[in-house]
Amino acid sequence: MTDETIGGASPEVQAEQPQRRGRGGPRRGGPGGGNDRGRRGPRDNQNTEERAEGELVDKLVAINRVAKVVKGGKNFGFAALVVVGDKKGRVGFGHGKAREVPEAIRKATEEAKKTLIRVPLREGRTLHHDGDGRWGAGKVMLRAAPAGKGLIAGGPMRAVLEVLGVSDVVAKSKGSSNPYNMVRATFDALKGQSSPRQVANRRGLKVADVVGRRKDGASLGEVAAEG
């Protein structure tokens, strides 16, 4: 018997056998024996979530946990509020409920796409005139701003104006801070917007006549109210 056969197998056979790891070997879960726990990045802020789907951009405004009381206890779910827009003058909002968060967001997004409205924009950056909106206890004020002013708004109002595509607007909430009331009040103010062409068509005038009166000192909102 030679030294190569001592130990029950030749070196070639031992090389082909898989090596066993003892208790002190590397742990499973990551390369080098590390564990991936605690290495995840920070959670994304749900109130600023934004993603592009084709031409539309949707933004998650608020998400709440809701409960339905039944005979055997409570069934918990989630309610999501989403605004959708193309950043070119179209915007809509919707809300959805489901047992899981992704499904609630999907339902809200689909409803928002069905309720899109078109808002006339001045130079593609701001509103044509000031406007007020109200829904329940929510009261908002929107004011047109010169170029370079920026989007001065916060909370749900900012989300609506961002997906609408305006970049120079001053907004103020004067009522309830409930996101549903604020979003609906903002849409109420946006629905009252009128462009010079729309005012001229209603009054049977030329656009130059409406714009001329606007330059004389009367705001477009006052001209639209007269028509």
Helicity, as a percent range: 25-40%
Class by SSE composition:
alpha+beta
Average of per-residue pLDDT values: 78
Shape descriptor reads elongated
Give a verbal description of the structure.
This protein has 227 residues and is an alpha+beta fold. Among the domains are: 73 residues, Double Stranded RNA Binding Domain (2-Layer Sandwich); 34 residues, no CATH class. It is 30% helix and 27% strand. The protein contains seven helices and nine strands, in the order H-E-E-E-E-H-E-E-E-E-H-E-H-H-H-H. The protein has a five-stranded antiparallel β-sheet with strand order 1-2-3-4-5. Strands 6-7-9-8 form a four-stranded mixed β-sheet. A hairpin with a 4-residue loop joins strand 3 and strand 4. Helix 3 packs across helix 4 and helix 5 packs across helix 6. The longest helix is centred in the middle third of the chain and has 14 residues. It is elongated. It starts with 10 loop residues before the first helix and ends with a helix.
Outline:
This protein has 227 residues and is of the alpha+beta class. 30% of the residues lie in helices and 27% in strands. It has helices spanning 11-16, 101-114, 155-164, 179-191, 196-203, 207-215, 220-226; strands at residues 50-53, 56-70, 73-85, 90-98, 117-118, 131-135, 138-144, 151-152, 169-173.
Main features:
five-stranded antiparallel sheet; 227 residues; elongated; four-stranded mixed sheet; 9 strands; alpha+beta; Double Stranded RNA Binding Domain; 30% helix
Topology:
Blueprint: H1 11-16, E1 50-53, E2 56-70, E3 73-85, E4 90-98, H2 101-114, E5 117-118, E6 131-135, E7 138-144, E8 151-152, H3 155-164, E9 169-173, H4 179-191, H5 196-203, H6 207-215, H7 220-226
Helix pairs in contact: 3-4, 5-6
